[in-house]
Amino acid sequence: MSGGQPAIRGYLIQTLIALLDALAKDRPWDYVRLEPADPDLEKIDLLWEQASGTRAVQVKSSQNQIGKADAERWAEELETHHGGADELELVLVGPCAQSVVQLGRAGRVTIPPPVPLNLDLLCQAAAHRLALFLESQGASAGRADQREALVRQLGWRLAQWSAESHRLSRAELAGLLEAWSREEAAKLPLFPIFTAPQRNPFFTGREAELEWLHTRLRTAGRAVLSQTQAISGLGGVGKTQTVLEYAHQVRGDYDAVFWISAASELELRTEYAQIAARLGLPHDAGDAEGAMRAARRWLESSPDRRWLLVFDNADDPQVLDVLQGWLPSSSPAGDILVTSRARVLEALGLVSPLALATLPAAESTAFLLKRTGREQAGEVTGAAELARELDGLPLALEQAAAYVLDRDVPFAEYLASYRRQRLALLEQRGPQSGAYPQTVATTWLLNFRQVGMESAAAAELLQLSAFLGAGAIPFELLSAGRGELGPTLGPALAADESLSVYELLKPLARFSLVRVDRTEQTYSVHRLVQEVTKGQLSEVSRRAWAERAVRGLNAAFPSPQFENWATCARLAQQGLAASELIATYGLQSNVSARLLNQVAFYLAARGQYAVAEPLYQQALEIRRQVLGEQHPNFAQSLNALASLYESTGRYEQAEPLLQQALEIRREVLGEQHPDFARSLNNLAALYDSTGRYEQAEPLYQEALDLYRQVLGEQHPNFALSLNNLAALYSATGRSEQAEPLFQQALEVYRQVLGEQHPDFATSLNNLAALYSATGRSEQAEPLYQQALEIRRQVLGEQHPDFATSLNNLAALYFATGRSEQAEPLYQQALEVLRQVLGPNHPHTKLVQANYDRARRAR
Is the pTM above the cut of 0.70? Predict the structure, then answer.
């Protein structure tokens, strides 16, 4: 049965998947023999050898429908050719009759469920496995957007190489695939770049809208009218699919097409920053803002490269405000497209976005028939009635078609079932925020039940996901938090094993209930899917799942120390969602308070004070109610909130909290406890910041002595006390006493934390300040520069400490007669502090005064 080029590629890619699976899964095999056959038969036989016996596997693909007789004939041929094998398996790739799907076995030959002949999906599956394989070998997995092209090349290499019989060990197979990957990857060019999602093969209609885009953006390769255009409309009306179809139609006109999700500020910033990585632009890996600036500079200054930039789902007004600041300035080489539910987009300079309406009746009917492959099935009338019932909303049409196709039911039967269930469901729950009509919710409910029939654990994963932040849910939240996720979902998740997550997401992804990002190992759930899911649960169940979500996230969220920041960054957005859950469901517990405190600590450490503050306050109140005001954890919350107040210049609010925390720790923990020393140090720091040196000094000295006794002189807290006391000595004119303490603190940090830690940078900065104050500018300058670079790499250019380093280095330049070098550093520092701390913060005012002085000196 000839299937043509797609069928040939199908069996090659599926054979490659089988080989990669054998290397990834710890299967007990010693050798594999690849036996060629007549190329017209479109197959490669794999003979797996192991001590317990042999297993013959044949991958057979066809573009034409595979019937039961075909499958049985191929199984008989396999048994004839490899009858000596202990096990026989026939893997079918292509469209199969229902009788083949249900076959399971023919004679001695096992026939697993057929694989659809969808080359895009096959290549995606192979690309994922290839990335995992290369990473396991310590090799580069390359760019995600090029892996599918690499897989196609490997398929052809496999076809050429297997023209003769080969017998390979596991190590030989791994070495061969790694070598091929390296050779083929080297041939792939940087351009073109295309990061848009897979094209929808069932896209129907929208000719007028697509023509509008072509006219507004490009005519015969020449930019016309406005460079930026947008499509607005109701959620689910097909904005994304229309722009996606346009992007695929014109991809040959561009060197690069970048697709960015703007559903949240976090997604916008993350995916915008990834442009720099895809282009290989120089930037600091930990500085997303810097990566975004590098990407924007390239977009604005690369006239020899034509590009299309799509911002999808920019619905949130706050995200639109952020997006406004990151749109590249006008460039004849580039075009920008935005999709949004917002009707008014004047903030983006767009007065008249294209308003997308629902599909007309004829196009809706055509879509249903095309999507289900029933153009010739005599079901036009049923499809037309269903299209009218669903009122032409593309998302509703897609969900209904997916159900009809999967269950193999006539349109008329689906429509009758829909009409019966809709009334009962409407009584239970009305429209949700006007974003989707009831029809979508009803179709989702049918899918929910089907998922439950297939996998109870997958159904529970959807229920859990309804209580998480909708976008970018990291896989590690599930694996690390599995012990808190209930007796069904928890055991279905394996520790540190993403494949178990993929397995649970599979039934959900089949019905478009989730979107999986294999590269980032995250998945997302539409907000309306979440709302509908919640609506199907009792109040008791909703509270139970909310509590599981909070407990699971708490188990996954690590101690927010510097070495854990990467994990904290992936989970922080979920922490903000958990804060809402805790408030909504009244989840007052030690677990809730701990999670809120940890998330807030991380956010404050990254300079996101406005986001951290309400979390600290929420944690404080929970601990007040649950533990009382004499508990050490309540003192911890007092201390944390006070530190944030101090960092943001609110000393009057911070002082009573620090004093209260000190007294609690004195009474409950005693005066020999490290936490008591921490309170002494923090209160002293506040006195120090407000010029009350006589009050600060004895507290610093008491904390230093206590840390020395309890923790020893090689502990970071001891170094912190040394540093603080030295800074006080320096501020009060006792430089000779300060210098050895600064130097001792620096060495402790160097030995204990390493030279890339933020505290080491602070110590460098302080010692440099002393050198500068005592006229030793030549010694100060390299320390200032080193501190600046550490903070740039570790904290990013939007952190207040980075601004402090800019200011200090600028002050040195100014003091040594280099005003021209000082002024831009002052200006950059001022912009950061205005944004993060506000114009009235003491640090901001200080830098403003320095900047003004530098400008006057010109």
Answer: no
